[in-house]
Amino acid sequence: MKLFYSAGACSMSPHLVLHELGIKFEAESVNLKTKQTASGKDFKAINPKGSVPTLLLDNKEVLTEGAVIVQYLADQKPEANLIPKAGTFERYRVQEWLNYIATELHKNFSPLFYDTTPAETKVAAREKLAARFDYVSNELNGKTYLMGNNYSVADAYMFTVLSWSAHVKVDLTKWPTILGYLEKIKSRPATLATLKAEGLLK
Ligand SMILES: N[C@@H](CCC(=O)N[C@@H](CS)C(=O)NCC(=O)O)C(=O)O
User: Fold this and answer.
1) According to the CATH classification, is domain 89-188 in 2.40.10.220?
2) In the chain, which residues fall in CATH 3.40.30.10?
3) Index of the ligand 1 atom closest to the CA of residue 49
4) Any idea which fold 2-80+191-197 has?
5) Is residue 63 in contact with ligand 1, taking CB distance under 6 Å?
6) Inter-CA distances, 120 with 2, 111, 124, Å
7) Is the pTM of this model over 0.90?
């Protein structure tokens, strides 16, 4: 299988999961502005949405949407314990987090990346993020990871999205629990391997 990604983008979430699983994969970066892959292919011919992450399977199926891709990947190696079994209530808890991260965090960070976003829209996005960080911080109290002691695909997505904070000048020092959580994830060998692969390790 091949993951199409862009360094530091939300595609880092499945990239982290692939490294955690230790399964064989290829990765190719995409220029999101020109929609060209590193090998010069027209990315929109692979994924008409033009967005990463995009997973190309060996049977030529193309899977999109990060929250779904990470579940597919984790299900390929259940013994790695990155996601509870489908149909269990715990699985819905992980899906609850994935959906929250996608809709409440990821998409409230997005406007902060564009020079063209009106200033008042950016202020509103920052306020929404702060309220959501209060919630996340509270949920993490007394836990190592979102699901308790067990690292899951939801943590991979959460780490990815929260790591944008420094880039868009969102100060996380008000949420020390979140900072401690991010440090824990950053020290995982699979996280370091992913950051290195994406050229993000200083
Ligand atoms: N709904 C998609 C959104 C993915 C997304 O926002 N990807 C961004 C990078 S973080 C992207 O590719 N942006 C370029 C574009 O959409 O043209 C998902 O959840 O996977």
Assistant:
1) no
2) 2-80+191-197
3) 16
4) Glutaredoxin (3.40.30)
5) no
6) 39, 11, 6
7) yes
Q: What is the pLDDT of residues 40-55, one digit of tens each?
A: 999 999 999 999 999 9
Rounded CA gap, 86 and 59, in Å? 23
The reply to whether ligand 1 has any atom less than 6 angstroms from the CB of 98 is no
> Pocket of ligand 1, candidates 49, 52, 55, 164: which has the most ligand atoms within 8 Å of its Cβ, to mutate?
52
At 54, phi and psi to the nearest 5?
-135, 130
Location of structure tokens 């990765």: 27
Q: Which regions of the chain carry the CATH code 1.20.1050.10?
A: 89-188
151-180 pLDDT, tens digit each: 999 999 999 999 999 999 999 999 999 999
Ligand 1 near 102 CB (within 6 A): yes
Q: Report the C-alpha gap between 114 and 108 in whole angstroms.
A: 12
